[in-house]
Structure formats: C-alpha cells, structure tokens
Amino acid sequence: PPERKRFYQNVSISQGEGGFEINLDHRKLKTPQAKLFTVPSEALAIAVATEWDSQKDTIKFYTMHLTTLCNTALDNPTQRNKMQLIRAAVKFLETDTVCYRVEEPAALAELQKNEWDPVVAWAEKRYNVAIGSSTSILGPNIPASTKETFISHLASYNMWALQGIEYVITQLKSLILSMGLIDRHITVEKAVLLSRLEEEYQIQRWGSVEWAHDYDLCELCARTAAGTLFVHLCSESSTVKHKLLQD
C-alpha cells in the first residue's frame, strides 16, 4: 500500500482472549481483511509495536516486514493449510541455490565449492539426509527420503512459524540456507552472501551499479532478518517481562 500520514501518537500492546493486540492510541490494529490483529506471543507483539512506533510523519508499510508477515498469517490470503505450506517449502529443494553449480569459469566453480559445500555438508549431517549438488541444468536428484525428512521436521513448527520459514526461503531461494539460518548455524549476513554468491562474484569482477547494488543488498538483509526473527518469535513461549516502549 502507498505511504499514509501517521494518524496516531502512542503505540501499546494488550492481552486479549486470542493473544496479544496492538493499540494505536485507543484503536485496535486490524488486518487488511479487517480481522483483529492478534499475535501469539508477547515478544512478537512488542516487535510489531516497535515497527509502528518507529514510523515518523508517514507510515512506510514497505519497511514493516513483521507487520506484513503477521497480516499474512492472520488473513492467509492463499488459503493454504499446514501441509500445503510445508510442501511448498520443501519443493525449493529441487531448485535450491546451493545445489546448482557451474563448471565455468573455474574461479566461480571453486568459489561455489568452497562456500556452499560446507553448508550442504552441515545440512546432510544435521538432518541425516543426502542432498548433493549438480552442474546439470536439471539440478541434483534429491532422494524422496530427504524430502520426507524435511517434511517431518517442518511439521514440528506451528502455522505462524511456517509462514515465516517460507518467506525466508523465497528471499534466499534456498531451503538449505534458510534452515541453517533458523537453526542459528549461519548469520543473516552470511546466508544472504551465500545466496548471492554468483552475483557478488560478478560484481567483484565487473563492478556494481552505484546505489542499486547496496539498496538491493540491504533490502534482502532486512527481509531475511525479519523473516528469521518472525520464526523465532512465533516459536517463543515465554513471556517478555519488561514494559513495552519505555520512555
């Protein structure tokens, strides 16, 4: 949506019957489908409230990634159930960024091997699966047992967290990097760099378009970080003890 003039002074959270709500002055926040904006954890509510409180004269909705993810979880515009979300996430294995390799130029092939092999090896050991890589345009042949293992693992997450996981996967174009990130094996910065390895190689070789490259990189980092934080906060069961947005 377009920017909108800020129409509220204060942001707070309150606990309702369905979870934690966001209050803009005395008005309760609603979703695009006019549902009451209610989140499952106090930590997530505080993070969303901080997004709203950080807006200045105008509300820049495109900067509010956590709010957007919550709206998606609440409204479920695609009307998918849990298994459909899981299968959509696992389908990314078939075109996973870190599984597609080049043979030429040799320098890029070596860079992919050095940077991507360790994270693939970690995933194979962590989940006790076979993944591999391929230089074929068809990609690697992912065993059915590997897909079933990831389906089983993702089923341990709730619907909210799964929305966040799929969001991170779509940013990185990689289930493997996303799971490494969510499992805290790699950092956001590292995951983003690995997802852009070929692009970064080309930039080092040919240079970047002034401002455009930095903007794209910052945006990708912001979206990936927000999605990862969303997953963790949606899996958070403990209550945050400190007061929201203290003066």
Task: List descriptors.
247 residues; alpha+beta; four-stranded antiparallel β-sheet; two-stranded antiparallel ribbon; globular; ATP12_ortho_dom_sf; membrane
What would your notes on this structure say?
- It is a single chain.
- The chain is an alpha+beta fold and 247 residues long.
- The chain is built from ten helices and six strands; from the N terminus they run E-E-E-E-E-H-E-H-H-H-H-H-H-H-H-H.
- It has helices spanning 42-53, 65-75, 82-91, 106-127, 144-154, 159-172, 175-182, 188-195, 197-206, 212-234; strands at 4-5, 11-15, 20-24, 27-28, 38-39, 58-59.
- The strands form two sheets. Strands 2, 3, 4 and 5 form a four-stranded antiparallel beta sheet that branches. Strands 1-6 form a two-stranded antiparallel ribbon.
- Helix 4 crosses helix 7 and helix 6 runs antiparallel to helix 10.
- The longest helix has 23 residues, at 212-234.
- The two termini are 30 Å apart.
- The model is unreliable at 238-247 (pLDDT under 50).
